[in-house]
Hints:
This protein has 229 residues and is an alpha/beta fold. It is built from 9 helices and 9 strands. The strands form 3 sheets. It has a 5-stranded parallel β-sheet with strand order 4-3-5-6-7. A two-stranded parallel sheet has the order 1-2.
Amino acid sequence: IVVNSEKEKAAVHRMMGIDESRILKTGMGIFSKIAYKHLNEDSEDMALIMLTWKPYEDNMEDFTKSTYYQNTMAIYQMLREYLPAEKIRVVIHPKTGAHLEKTELAPSIWRGPISEALQTAKLLITDYSSVCYNSFYQGGGVVFFQEDLKFYEKENGKLIPKDDEYIGRRTFSLPELKAVLEEGCRDGRIHLDYFRTEEFERRYHSINEFSDGKNMERLCEKLIELGLI
């Protein structure tokens, strides 16, 4: 198992019962392929909406009544108060079928690799997706929208991040999200100094200790050391 930090190593050992000798703290290989903090205040003001699919909504007869649909639409409409449509991208889950293709979201639906959308996301709005770490590594800001947190955890189990480990502002209702966006998106710009505070930076680096782009080299060295390659 490959991890990014001592904190993550301890969590894997505790939660999965894997011996620490089998947990390699080298950093995930994916972070060797993306540039660290290449996004900054001067970057294009692109916002990305990426909510997770809820398994308990699989069999809903009317997709438009799902929280996935309603929240995605509400967040998009909210962002349109601050950014033009061409500055908003939405990564939709394959299970949405053609439902969202028939809405005002259609021009903003991202159809390329998710990795490419993350490369330009100065602001990511998600609920529970681990892509938040990928986005933050690249310099983007993250906002969490967790309106259904209690029910989500009841159905899927307790979330791993503790309250003081989140790397972005957490919101639990649409009015809370609107208040955050009003503060951070002004004059048609996404202000990273609001979304990326020193505290969020500290929390991130306690989870991902490596930012030198040499994770693959470290991993190979460890595998050679263990006689596995």
